[in-house]
Specification:
The protein is 41% helix and 17% strand. It has 323 residues and is α+β, with helices and mostly antiparallel strands. β3 and β4 form a beta hairpin. It is built from ten helices and eleven strands. The protein has two domains: 120 residues, no CATH class; 180 residues, M1 Pyruvate Kinase, Domain 3, CATH 2.40.33. The longest helix has 28 residues.
Length: 323
Amino acid sequence: MSEPASRPRSGLGRLLRATYALLALAAGARAAVQIGADFGRAPGAYLLTACAAAVYALIAATILSPGPARRRIALVACSLELAGVLGVGVATSLWPGAFPDETVWSGFGAGYGWVPLLLPALGIAWLLRSSPPMSEPAGETMERLQAGLDRVLRAPADDGRIELIVARPAEEERVLLERASFEPGRGLTADTWSVRPTRKTGAPNPDAEVTLMSSRAAALVAGSAEPESWAPAGDQLYADLDIGVANLPAGSRLAVGSAVLEVTAEPHLGCGKFIRRYGTDAMKLVNSERGRELRLRGVNLRVVEAGEAAVGDRIRRLEVPAG
């Protein structure tokens, strides 16, 4: 097995989301008690705590969202939070009487162990590191994509690793899974493939029960090594494996955990949604002749044998059709 893939750590993102959710509950409960018990005593301070709770809830809801738009919302919210903590911290330090009662951000969040001060800075740093660039100068995107193809070409041919599993509970929604089940006629059981009609037949496409994208190609077009940033592509499996036509012609079978899936002849190409998510240059690359040969956009599969797979499991090439 050549060049093992390293799975980027996304534990910090989950920790940030959990901490923000906890702060939202704590600040929300504090504001509710203060406003309900004695609102007239310090209305400004109590409303500020309520606003802080709303900001925390917004960040908790968006910081791990796979869509770039929602992650931008999280970045803006973290920036506003940091500005608020610094502003209120300075005000309460220089003019202690400015607020008759303490807020979550009083004394730079001293009442909460200075977590309100440290958390937004950490959140901003993590979001900037894990998200694709907000914008890229014209021409540079294609150069970056072309330069990154060498790494895609070095993916293992026979024995790889599952890097990400994603279910689509509804249109434009993504849920990142640690483990998933696959069944013939249902695809990934937590997904909505079985109830998604195609324009051609009005029924689910049996040759596209599951879609698999190279994790190296996904990282390339997303401009990020964080698996969460790959999920908007809309595929269910992302693995470190050579999925090009030469390596996996139609009819090839793959062991995905304990399940067996078969490559179909149904092409998998970039569309308008792909442009919105990753840009025009990314779609030009994946839909180019070279991109189709390498299946940079991904490959369609059908489930042959039911089974389960988890992030970190092996994905192995079992059979390749003769000729």
